[in-house]
Amino acid sequence: MYHTVVIGGGCLGAATAISLQHKLNKLNIKEKVCIIDKSVLCAAESSRHSGIVRSANADQDASLMASESTKLWKNLESIWGVDMETEQFGAIWIAKKGQDGENKAWKELSKRMKSLNIEFNEIDHTKASDLCGKSLIINEDESYYYEPAALQIDPSILRSTIYDALEYNGVEVLEKTSVESILTNDNNVTTCVTNNGNFSGKNFVNAVGAWSPQLFLKIGIKIPVTIEPVSVVNWMESPKQIKHEYPIIADYVNLCYFRSWRGNKLHAHQPRKRSVYEIAKNFINDLCAVNGGEYLNEPMNQSLAYNQIKTYEDIARKRFSNIDNTVYSSGYRSFFDITPDLRFILGEDSKFSNLYHVLGSGQAMKYSPILGEAIAEDILKRPKNINKFDYKKFSINRFGDDYMDQFWNLVNGEENTLHRQGKNTL
Ligand SMILES: Cc1cc2nc3c(=O)[nH]c(=O)nc-3n(C[C@H](O)[C@H](O)[C@H](O)COP(=O)(O)OP(=O)(O)OC[C@H]3O[C@@H](n4cnc5c(N)ncnc54)[C@H](O)[C@@H]3O)c2cc1C
Q1: SS (H, E, C) 385-399
Q2: Fewest CB within 10 A of the end CB: N or C in the chain?
Q3: Measured between alpha carbons, how far is 7 from 14 in angstroms, rounded to an integer?
């Protein structure tokens, strides 16, 4: 019997397993954590991320969590027992000014960030140019903000570090092992049934991300997570124009994030869509539709069409003066896992008291260390690092039947939706 069985070996599941085993070892508790993945570790969403760790966020709790996570990334040894290389080139945020020549929302955001000790300050065009060089196209009607603490992580280094940390702490890793069903008694999960046998534990963690609705509906838990498509393109660059030590560019004018990779490649992907209407389109008609996970790793879904690459080239050309002289290097289609309110699902389940969730939100890689710590502390019933944040607001409880019923109202006014009309006519 394991102390804890973590289902799902993406960066969130792995971070939880590592933090928990590290704490058990320190407490001299001779019990084991195991992590189960139906594929290999970090094969799904955790292999497609851009490695960007930024803290400024309209949601204060998300900012605090990201800022704490940034500190942990830089000192992983303290919680994982192994260290990892990160790169700190900062991030430049770009947005259009309002008619009054100001960007009020970001001025406010900057003030709020200051109160949280997160540096996010307006810089002028000259400073932006100094930080980026002449290839960055700057405009008088845009404002520029700088977040110097933003980090870049190399996904392949993160993946190797995860394997090293699991081994160093003695977590049992079961790859190519698919949890087919889950056994329960009263209000506890008891066993995972897999193609490689049954695994019992005192606690269980759901870290299967986009696969959650599919797996957990089997034990009556509705988890509203779906996926939103996103494309990624990398161009070959010259270090003479875009050096590797280039700040992350969060371009909210052209809706694109850019970062540099080693070997001088410029990487671009578009952000998640934020309007409730756009989010709802991904959920189709049912907040618990089982339409997520399998699309992620399906090869047919990976490649980009010519016009998608060209669209990105057009976007990038608006921000970089030399992009049409660079060479297309690689690109792929991927998916963000999203919840209806774009927030995590974290912590204890409302039905099964030994089941914990850690998933969702689409931008989770950067939070892995802090979320791993939080779930580990939750399981061990210890005082939480995460106590400073409003952890409860990320609970699965918020998606009760009422929420599900009201969601379509948020979209467009329920009366106007096909969903409602369908209900009335059926
Ligand atoms: C293009 C792109 C760019 C991104 N950039 C960033 C970024 O810059 N910064 C950032 O913070 N985030 C970023 N993200 C988001 C980030 O990649 C994800 O939020 C994160 O990887 C999610 O990790 P996860 O562990 O929850 O899920 P996943 O990595 O999807 O892991 C879930 C795992 O569960 C396993 N599984 C599923 N079903 C079963 C089963 N039945 N039995 C056993 N195992 C199972 C799967 O095989 C998979 O390995 C980006 C995402 C994309 C698509």
Answers
A1: HHHHCCHHHHCHHHH
A2: C
A3: 9
- What gap in Å lies between CA 238 and CA 82, rounded to an integer? 34
Q: Shortest CA distance to 162 belongs to which of 364, 368, 360?
A: 368
Q: Where are the domains of the chain?
A: 1-89+151-225+340-394
Sign of the Cα torsion 214, 369, 119, 244 reads negative
Other beta carbons less than 10 A from residue 81's beta carbon: 16
Q: Best of 7, 36, 46, 206 to mutate for ligand 1, by most ligand atoms within 8 A of CB?
A: 46
pTM above 0.90, yes or no: yes
| 11 ligand 1 Cβ < 6 A | yes
- Residue 192 Cβ inside 6 Å of ligand 1? The answer reads no
Q: How far is C-alpha 36 from the chain's CA centre?
A: 20
Residue corresponding to tokens 């790169």 = 87
Gap between the Cα atoms of 76 and 93, Å rounded: 27
| CB of 37 shorter than 6 A to ligand 1 | yes
Q: Which fold has domain 1-89+151-225+340-394?
A: FAD/NAD(P)-binding domain (3.50.50)
- 244-281 pLDDT tens trace: 899 999 999 999 999 999 888 999 998 877 777 777 77
Cα-to-centroid distance, 46 and ligand 1 (Å): 4
